[in-house]
Amino acid sequence: MGTAVRNAFVLTLAGGLPKYAFADTTSQKTERSMPITADFDIVIASGTIYDGTAADPYRADIGIRGDKLVAIGRITGKAAKIIDAQGLTITPGFIDVHTHCDMTFQEAGMGRYLAYVLPSFKGNYNYLYQGVTTVVTGNCGFGYVDTNYWLDLVDAMRFGTNVYHLAPHGMIREALFGTEQKSGYSRKEIEALKNKVAEEMQKGTLGFSTGLAYAPGLLTKKEEIIEIAKVVRKYGGIYTTHIRDESGQRYADGTIGVVEAINEAIDIGRRAEIPVEISHIKIDAPINSVKASQILEPIEKARAEGLDIHADQYPYDAGSTRITILLPNGFVTSTGIKDMYKTKEGRKEVKAAIEQVFTYLPPEKTLITMYLGKPSYEGQTIKEIAESEGKSPSGCYVDLVCEGKAPFGVFFSQNMDIVRDLMPHDYIITGSDGWTVPKGLTKPHPRVYGTFPKKLRQFVLQEKRMGLKEAFISMTSLPAKKFNMQGRGRITEGHYADIAVIDLNTITDHATYTNPHQYAVGVVHLLVNGVLALENGKATGERGGRALRRS
């Protein structure tokens, strides 16, 4: 590139685009100095491009034709639509590898058909407004056991984001063997599990997931997982896991729950020779002074030995799932508690168990978020509900878990300093652990609306816990590479046109625990497979998402 071009240049685009003059620097270079005269469907002009890699940002135009990004440089050809990105930042669309968007449809029952009429539902707006263009479902061992059924539904409603799927080990186990699970299965039963997972891999899943802290996954022996993982490896798949224990509890032998669970995931990956993703890495209560370094050390050691292992993380100090997660394993089913604990004597056992939990996670630390049976409870803590009902907190909890499906809650069980310490490492991927949420329904965790903007605003731009380039990598090329998503995660010619145009001055989340239904702001324009899903910060109603399969 010549000196004159390197120091300054004037870009002029045909088709009515105004002229812009700007200086360049060594970290902001044009992709090309020669003009591109071809015509395009869309041109994104004059933005600063973070291409999703470790390369320095640069200023250039992007030419899009159909669903592909086909040119980067100084474009002088015509375009049917020109997006002025001067002063704005261009990145690949964000990829959220840990969502439960599929479970929204499962939990909603017949209500899932509202997706055909509610724009925010079928558009997956809570993710689009964050800049997310691709989500992965089937996490934590939950989700649709028939990949084709789910992905056909995605295409039928023309969903707002791209969707990949994982084979959910827990639900496959339950589908094959019923709700009364065993810890060990016969050789014939193990072969049935392996065959079913292989069938889903043939349908295009990215890999398989386990939820080892949940029924039915919690009964699974490590050897069973290794055998399934070896099958998945043959298809080039990945193993993702909600590990067996995420807490800092100390066992009688002095070992720490979360550390032992991470070591189990590492051992599975090593013995099956399969890539591993640890889901929503954290240290849950009781924390017992366990530090981030103690759970990162075995991961870093395994990586140094050559194991392909990463973790994903959301930037909050509260988690969310069914409130039965607070009970010991023997009490729970996949949707509530066992019938034997709904009797008079059984309820006493549940009450005694939760009172033990309340010693380190008091009832004011659990907020009910989704309870279809009693929506008036949503947005209230167990303590608040108990006071309004004239019950003890433990008695209130027993009632909540004994009535049909147990509600979902938010648990303020983490330490934000640990969240900060886990975040900036180059093997930590950004992931929400969120759901597709129709605007105004239930009281979800704010991460379903704010994960990606919150991380950028609070932890990157304000607190500077990590660099902007590194944060974008954790949201784009790193998850794409880890999960083998071809043609996504980078700004490069030939890739699909999943592109976010962001105003770094305004990017932020607005969702709170008490008022979660607030869209993030700062993603000015968003394209999904070349379709303009957000324009000038507002959803267009156009949907470009696709059901995607491992290639």
CATH H-tier superfamily of the largest domain = Metal-dependent hydrolases
Specify the number of helices.
Answer: 17
Rg computed from alpha carbons, rounded to a whole number of angstroms: 24 Å
The low-confidence runs, each spanning 5 or more residues with pLDDT under 50, are 1-31
> How helical, in percent, are the residues?
25-40%
How many beta strands in the DSSP annotation?
24
Shape: globular
CATH architecture of the largest domain: Alpha-Beta Barrel
Main β-sheet description: 10 strands, mixed
Average per-residue pLDDT, rounded, comes to: 92
CATH names the topology of the largest domain as: TIM Barrel
Whole-Å distance between the termini? 38 Å
- Strand percentage, roughly? 15-25%
Count structural domains: 3
CATH class of the largest domain, anyone?
Answer: Alpha Beta
Write the SSE topology.
Blueprint: H1 3-7, E1 8-11, E2 20-23, E3 35-36, E4 40-49, E5 58-65, E6 68-75, E7 79-84, E8 89-92, E9 94-96, H2 101-108, H3 119-122, H4 125-128, E10 132-137, H5 147-157, E11 162-165, E12 167-168, H6 169-177, H7 187-202, E13 207-211, H8 222-234, E14 238-242, H9 257-272, E15 276-278, H10 292-304, E16 309-313, E17 319-322, H11 344-357, E18 366-370, H12 382-389, H13 393-402, E19 408-411, H14 416-422, E20 428-430, H15 447-462, H16 468-475, H17 477-482, E21 499-502, E22 523-528, E23 531-535, E24 538-539
Parallel strand pairs: 3-6, 4-7, 4-8, 9-10, 10-11, 12-13, 13-14, 14-15, 15-16, 16-20
Antiparallel strand pairs: 1-2, 4-5, 5-6, 8-21, 17-19, 18-19, 21-22, 22-23, 23-24
